[in-house]
Design brief:
- The protein is of the alpha+beta class and about 70 residues long.
- It has helices at about 10-20, 60-65, and strands at about 1-10, 25-30, 45-55.
- The longest helix is centred in the first third of the chain and has 13 residues, at about 10-20.
């Protein structure tokens, strides 16, 4: 798995994960702070939320993000 994007919050990360899923790309996200939970109830994360996809899907995923 490779990191393709750092979302500003959990809401944006969920939207991106859904977009990727709709286009046949499996993705997951985690806090950019090394797994330390630092976002509040509002979904804001101090370090953002990293989005990961399979290396074989990385270019397609990045293209989808540019086009959104």
């Amino acid at each position: 798995m490779v990191k393709i994007y750092n979302a500003k919050n959990v809401v944006e990360a969920e939207e991106i994960a859904e977009l990727l899923k709709e286009n046949g790309i499996s993705a997951y996200h985690q806090n950019a702070a090394g797994g330390v939970t630092v976002h509040s109830i509002s979904g804001f994360s101090l370090y953002g939320v990293d989005i990961f996809v399979d290396e074989a899907d990385a270019e397609k995923a990045k293209k989808l993000l540019v086009e959104r």
